[in-house]
Amino acid sequence: MTVHFFNLFTTASYAKESPDSIFAKYAVLLDGDTGRVLYGKNENEKAPMASTTKIMTCIIALEYAKENIFCTTSAYAASMPDVQLNAVKGEIFSINDLLYSLMLKSHNDTAVIIAENIALHYLYDGDDKDSMSPETNTDEQSRMLVLLFASAMNRKAAELGCHDTYFITPNGLDSEDENGIHSTTARDLATIMAYCIKNQDFLNITQSKNHTFTSSLKTSDNNLKTYNSYSVSNSNAFLDMYDNVISGKTGFTGDAGYCYVCAYRCDGRTFIVALMACGWPNNKTYKWKDTRKLLDYARNTYYPSEIISKDMQPDDIIVENGNPSVLHLKIENNNGFTALLSHDDKVNVSIHMQTLSAPVISGETVGEVCAYINNEKIYSLPITAANTIKEKNYVFYLKQLLKRLIFIDKS
Asked: Mean of the pLDDT values across residues 393-405?
């Protein structure tokens, strides 16, 4: 049984025409809170994403390294091509410092240092773990650790529903193996960013203007001495070009072209823009023009509207052969639901109930309330039984018969 509470919901008329002349070959504008695509251009097609990869590298490191571990540079990490921190074999950094190098300056060697050390500390459980160290590892051992880290990146992508994403490297350099190329879609990339900005440490790092830090080397007697000092500044110029942009990451490779992903938040609205193949040299500024156009469109078109209220209450239903026959319903964890709508978005809120017969136990899930925008399901909550309904079986009818006989005797 399905009960429709309302079939059409419209906001005020403030919609603008969709942007139709962006440079990027692959693009998406996402509602960062619901994951709904507000604008797309080839948004589900796979393509290389260059250093925008590093948003996943960063969030994996933040989630695994709950303490400020120290990371040692391998010969393999030190061999990564530009852009580089130019770390040397054996150089030691704190993971916190490396994350600033990763996200502010997009250093490719830093990404591999992070990947190797996170893999060794938290992911690798081999018999030879105690004998492994990035300082002494062979290139083969380093690649094994990097692949282990990449597998964690792919697991996280799958958890987020990004099934068209495949990570091979932690730095986003063009790569290919027997399973495919290092790639994602604009929609998946935006979905990953929407997840990353829920982490305050991620925001603190990507919003920083600059960061200074030092590294260490081991001495011959196994003590640490300061080796070098570094200063990195934020290369995400769009932070200063558009108000209320809270995070972002650029990228470029020969295969990927210029790429960019960013998050905007203001007045109860969160927009994510992801662009891939947004020009090649000398068209470095195309990504800023596209991002501005998509955010202007979003701000002028989509506004928060309540779709499910906190006090929404489903009607009671009758359960066949039930004792009592009336089942009261409860929407679980209903804190209300608000989504971004344009004036021509069609909203339908429906209750979908299972076919019920007694017995029904209090707390049992018996249906769900679903919100649809333009026929796409974007939100749901379970509906549970608020009371227990027993079955009217032969015992029930026997008791009813006995009660009637007793009443007749007394009369």
From this structure: 60
Tokens of 160: 């987020």
136's CB contacts (< 8 A; 6+ apart) are none
| pLDDT tens digits, one per residue of 32-64 | 999 999 999 999 999 999 999 999 999 999 999
**Identity of the amino acid at 141:** Q
- C-alpha distances in angstroms, 327 versus 360, 366, 385? 9, 10, 7
| Dihedral in degrees, nearest 10, Cα atoms 138, 140, 144, 145 | 20
Q: What is the C-alpha separation between 214 and 230, in angstroms, rounded?
A: 6
pLDDT band of 96, cuts 50, 70, 90: very high
Assess contact for 141 and 116: CB atoms under 8 A.
no
CA distances from 225 to 75, 88, 214, 215, 234 (A): 20, 14, 10, 8, 28
Enter the tokens of residue 23: 């440079």
**Rounded to two decimals, what is the model's pTM?**
0.89
Residues β-bridged to residue 349: 6, 371
Element (H, E) at 62: helix 54-64
CB-CB contact of 369 with 336 (8 Å): no
Torsion of CA 55, 270, 195, 58, to 10 degrees: 20
Find out whether 27 and 143 touch, Cβ atoms under 8 Å.
no
pLDDT at 183: 98
Tokens 């078109």 correspond to: 301
Q: Tokens standing for 263?
A: 């998050």
- Paired with 176 in beta bridges are 181
Which secondary structure element, helix H or strand E, spans residue 318, and what is its range?
strand 317-318
Kindly provide the residue ranges of all beta strands, DSSP E only, lying in 9-152, ordered along the sequence: 26-31, 37-41, 70-72, 92-94
Per residue in 222-248, is it b (16+ CB within 10 Å) or e — as a string? Answer: eeeeebeebebebebebbeebeebbbb
